[in-house]
Amino acid sequence: MQRTAVIGCGQTHHKKVRDDLSMAGLLREAAVRALEDAEMDWSDIDAVVIGKAPDPFEGVMMPEVYLADALGCAGKPIMRVHTAGSVGGSTAVVATHLVSSGVRERVLTIGFEKQSEGDTTWGLGGGRSGSVGAGGYFAPHMRAYIDRANAPDYIGPAVAVKDRLNALKNPYAHLKLPDITIEQVLDSPYVWEPVRRLESCPTSDGAAAMVLASEKVADASSKPVAWVHGTAIRSELGQFPGRDPVSPQGGKDCAADVYAQAGITNPIEDVDVLECYVPFSWYEPMWLENLGFAGVGEGWKLVENGTTNFGGKLPTNVSGGVLSSNPIGASGMLRFLEAALQVRGLAGEHQVDGAKTAVGHAYGGAAQFFAMWVVRDEKP
Amino acid sequence: MLPMTDIAIVGYAQSPPTFGVQETETQMLFPAVNEALARANLTRADIGFMCSASCDYLSGAPFAFVQTLEVTGAWPPISESHVEMDGAWALYEAWVRLHHGDIDTAMVFASGITSRCDWREVSALQLDPYYLMPLWVDDISLAALQANALIESRKATERNFAEIAARIRGGDADEFLKEPYVVEPLRAHDTPTMSDGGAAIVLAVGDRARELCERPAWIAGIDHRSEAHYPGVRDLTISDAARIAGQQSGVGKGPIEVAELAAQFSHEELVLREALGLTDGTVVSPSGGALAANPVIATGLVRIGEAANQIIDGGRKRTLGHASAGPCLQQNLVCVLEGE
């Protein structure tokens, strides 16, 4: 197995509507930045792997076919991954495997969504009536968590405030809410109890891109690179008696797998930065437990005592997270990308000092698809 | 340099292609998945990695793959991925995954039900959404452009197309030529028989493959390439993507006894034969190819499975399976298989 590193990162300025760009233009904005960061040109790339959520979101079937021209793929391989909300993470995993297998040396991977070209909630319902949207689906799981963990009501709002204030340090983030307070969040209307409007992710247009490279190529890089120490994906059936959708087994197994690869035995001590997929505020404490950073029923305490704050012991979503930018097909890749930026020391204003080990995480479907990676500043 | 892991196809099955299947997509897949596993003497729990292929625009709803996940069992949770492409690309992803040494088996499956949509209308939705799609140019019209390009360049005639169709479908080329055009110069016999179907392939590494299958079909080379999307910027009389994929997968390193080509239109076989450098010594698409049954998304995986069976059951030494996607053979995947 070949050692693999992230040598270039790029993302768009995420916004509600990027009507200044076509869909191809959106991907190129991220891709060109990743190539510039990697000090490469399109001709250096061996293969492209793109990912996005369901095609009905934009109304283009298998968009890799149309995007081949804009992504320099005449004569090259391009493939398309789709694993629901986890897709940005799974796509990065497929791209990593293309390099770690020895099949390719330089792979460009891009996750994207241009939600403004369609209607996501309509798309989620397949155009049929009665779609409750993602938040409507997950709300009962969050309510069950609150009841089980006996968590105080202000924990969700506290996560919402933290991530929005973090976003002020990220020039690419969509939502900028400098004056947000817990009171303001508590005063915002319920969208789906227990989730209030300000505890929900926005709908964004955006793309994230990375260049993955072999050890030989990465060693020649003039900039710091992020070495991939482990990747894992897990899927489980979405509905059956006995399944725990609040802390799904697939998430636990995915974390255990990737930690074992990276030699992480005590996540809260061994991990410096966490970028996890939190589209609704309560998912932060839920994933902290599911991913082994806190015991059962203890996740919310890491929010309450500031552990997950910027400057805390486990800074979580210092980029602003999905709560601040949600181009769905890119949202998972942004978690992976931000983790890489942190260990490269290139995160700018939201850089966590001395970040050496970072975890990227994404989930999708009925909280049934999971993708994770561990990146470090040093080689495996 | 290509990696050295020996990876083979050790089990393949497809659901019988029909049009107007009564079952759900998942139900349609179950027998094929069960049979492919049985052929490899494996159960779902033995599989190290699964990868599926489906298309939301065929099923008319998002998350077709979330429904078909049921065929994997997926409890306890499994390591699983999905491509919104032909299943041949799922096989490619599994082949890449098997190079890592931590697992020694994988299964891929693909499904498509074309009878529940108007494929000519839906096929237009994969085109550039700003400049091409609004013209509602469908797959047959785009294929007709390519067929016309062949005729105008004097590389082929309508009779050549009819002869290919007659070989595959059975029948008389002279009679075929009396039929009306669907889109000039293509007649009904030149266009694919749209189908509903699913297929599954089990892969294994090295000695595990030898243990599971008397005569594994070893993947000697596999590669896929795209070319430009716009028909107007391409020379439609050739396929660069197929040519490069063929070179990279080593087609020319030895004689190919059987080539299963995903030529959805009769003229595409001519383009692909030239691009892959196939000679008259190669038997092309004895299964009927994509012309005789086109369960979109499964079509390419079926070609690879049929090419594998030529080795596993048929005793052949060297075959290839081909898959394509996009208008006018835009994307091509070539998988060269060898018996020991």
Give the terminus-to-terminus CA distance of chain B. 22 Å
Greatest interface and its participating residue counts: A-B, 65 and 62 residues
* CATH class membership of the domain at 4-121 and 203-219 in chain A: Alpha Beta
What CATH calls the topology of the domain at 7-117 and 193-212 in chain B is: Peroxisomal Thiolase, Chain A, domain 1
Q: Write down the secondary-structure element order of chain A.
A: EHEHEHEHHHHEEEHEHHEHHHHEE
- Whole-angstrom Rg of chain A: 19 Å
Shape of chain B: globular
Morphology of chain A = globular
Structure classification of chain A:
alpha/beta
User: Termini distance of chain A?
Assistant: 11 Å
What strand order characterises the main sheet of chain A?
A: 3-2-4-7-1-8-11-10-9
Second CATH tier, the architecture of the domain at 7-117 and 193-212 in chain B: 3-Layer(aba) Sandwich
Order of helices and strands of chain B: EHEHHEHEHHHHEEEHEHEHEHHEE
| Quaternary | heterodimer
Strand content of chain A: 15-25%
Largest sheet of chain B: 10 strands, mixed
Compact description:
The complex is a heterodimer of chains A (380) and B (340). Chain A is of the alpha/beta class and 380 residues long. Chain A has helices spanning 23-37, 64-67, 87-100, 120-124, 133-149, 155-167, 182-187, 215-219, 249-262, 267-270, 283-290, 299-304, 321-324, 328-344, and strands spanning 4-11, 47-51, 78-81, 106-114, 190-192, 195-196, 205-214, 226-235, 273-275, 357-364, 369-376.
What does this structure look like?
The complex is a heterodimer of chains A (380) and B (340). Chain A is α/β, with parallel strands linked by helices. Chain A has a domain at 4-121 and 203-219: Peroxisomal Thiolase, Chain A, domain 1, CATH 3.40.47. Chain A has helices at residues 23-37, 64-67, 87-100, 120-124, 133-149, 155-167, 182-187, 215-219, 249-262, 267-270, 283-290, 299-304, 321-324, 328-344, and strands at residues 4-11, 47-51, 78-81, 106-114, 190-192, 195-196, 205-214, 226-235, 273-275, 357-364, 369-376. In chain A, the strands form 2 sheets. A 9-stranded mixed sheet of chain A has the order 3-2-4-7-1-8-11-10-9. In chain A, helix 3 (87-100) crosses helix 14. The radius of gyration of chain A is 19 Å and the shape is globular. The N and C termini of chain A lie close together (11 Å). Chain B is an alpha/beta fold. Chain B has a domain at 7-117 and 193-212: Thiolase/Chalcone synthase (Peroxisomal Thiolase, Chain A, domain 1). Chain B is built from 13 helices and 12 strands. In chain B, the strands form 2 sheets. Chain B has a 10-stranded mixed sheet, with helices on both faces. Chain B has a two-stranded antiparallel sheet with strand order 5-6. In chain B, helix 11 links the parallel strand 9 and strand 10 (283-284). In chain B, helix 4 (87-97) packs across helix 13 and helix 10 (240-248) packs across helix 11 (266-276). Chain B is globular, with a radius of gyration of 19 Å. Classes of the chains: A alpha/beta (380), B alpha/beta (340). At the A-B interface, helix 2, strand 3, helix 3, strand 8 and helix 9 of A face strand 3, helix 4, strand 8 and helix 10 of B.
